[in-house]
Amino acid sequence: MKITFLELEDNYAKVLFENTTPYFVNAIRRTLISDVPKLAIENVTIYDNTSALFDEIIAHRLGMIPLPTHLDLLVFREECSCNGKGCPNCTVHYTLSKEGSCTVYSGDLRPEDAMWAVKDKNIPIVKLLKDQRLILEAEAQLGTGKQHAKWQAVCGIGYKYYPVIEIDSEKCNLCNECVEICPRKVLEIKKKKLDVKNVEECILCKSCEEVCKRDAIKVKGDENRIIMQYETDGSLSAKEVLMEALKILHKKYDELEKKL
Amino acid sequence: MISYKCAKCGKNVDIDSERMGMKCPHCGGKIFYKERGTIAKKLKAR
After folding, report:
1. Which end of chain A lies in a sparser environment, N or C, as judged by fewer CB atoms within 10 Å?
2. Cβ <8 Å between B45 and A46
3. Which chain B residues contact residue A59 at CB under 8 A?
4. Percent of the residues in chain A that have a pLDDT greater than 70, as a whole number
5. Residue B45 included in any domain
6. Is A43's CB within 8 Å of B44's CB?
7. Strand locations in A85-208, DSSP E?
8. Is B44's CB within 8 Å of A148's CB?
9. A180 and A195 within one domain
């Protein structure tokens, strides 16, 4: 199997898998969603809250904030040597203290160390009026998407077959209908010939195939080449998250092999 | 006896919940807020 990054940004990746099967790529997709660990706020101690929102709603909003995750520095709380009590190896502490009138943002969460500072500083938590206060402490710990959506590092993940567009230029009369109907603008007429501009953009909707009266276009998907794209919520980078998923999958196959 | 905060004058008023009807002895207001306790509240962020 060959893996190529077609596009790679901090929080977004488009990956091409070659010589593979849909089953295998789906296993990677499911691992990315439910098994890759990330940091999220789990325990909140509220000392004062005179805002308009209930304590529970504020706690829930805090839980959903993406926190930067350094997987090499943290272990799961259940597996930690502290026996689940919470120690620097498994828990990250945050404090928040604000008095109105203002809006409390995710950036107001103060971590114990600057490396854990929230990256997206402009997520609103609650609006405070004059004399309203919010004072709390929060504990963040590792978890997986299986347990709760707040521990899901990846979002908007999907995959498709690699599109193969075959054009029969003898049948084509350059009517331009397929070029116009394509939602991704994949086709173009160049030098009096119908041509494919950017094949990877094709979503295999087959609109061009249906609109063509002369059957000049055939759109197929190559089952052995698969394009997968996903975003991360910012807690892990797109590359880190894939490497971690592959490690986890590898470990699972190893365990299966040992048990057989 | 539970302490409530009067919505009209803002003073803390001790009111016997057994008795029918509530009225602020300072201003006569009839709307009260239940004040938040001073105990830290532990919650799960879910």
Report:
1. C
2. no
3. 43-46
4. 100
5. no
6. yes
7. 91-99, 102-105, 110-111, 124-128, 133-143, 154-167, 187-190, 193-196
8. no
9. yes
